[in-house]
């Protein structure tokens, strides 16, 4: 059963996470071993999740996407955790990098838990839509945290690109309202998948545009504030759909 394989491999990944966190305070060799072990485990986990997605059959592509998104979230969280571990290596316990490490570990465990909940929901058609929506809400909250951080984007884009990305929010909003009215599982799952991409794209484009060389500090602050407000408003909409 693919679910048992995913559960077993996910548990191994949680153990790897613990080793990574403790490895920050130990030798470089132990840290390297923990990083290598977690990289091997995430590769195995990705494979069993892909097999699980394939076992659903091609007549349910939206649920397959939900599963694939769940493992992508875990992989991204692991990458961030390894980065945070490197940053915290050999630092004192009260160093800010240690708090970043604990935060990254918490996100990692949250995403593994989310993956396991999603796998369980996939086997119960009545809860698939609800679970997909819950996972998307969690993902958007994590993306918003990254958006609100002081980290400067690697590249900048034009204000026009940011405006173009807001069209995805408009489409996703219409889809969310329709799903709230129909309450059909497949509509809710499709909304979850579309919402996830639309909000992530908007946040990325907004932050990149706000750091364009021609943008003033005042305009940047306003753009970032409106990006946050838009996301919080959209999260509220998804919460209502979930309630319905």
UniProtKB/TrEMBL annotation:
UniProt-recorded Gene Ontology molecular function terms: actin filament binding; integrin binding
Name of the molecule in the record: TLN2 protein
Residues annotated as domain Talin IBS2B: 8-119, 129-241
Classification via SUPFAM superfamilies: alpha-catenin/vinculin-like
Compartments where found: Cytoplasm
Cellular component terms (Gene Ontology): cytoplasm; focal adhesion; plasma membrane
GO terms, biological process: actin cytoskeleton organization; cell-cell adhesion
Organism: Crypturellus undulatus
Sorted UniProt keywords: Cytoplasm
Pfam families: Talin_IBS2B (PF21896)
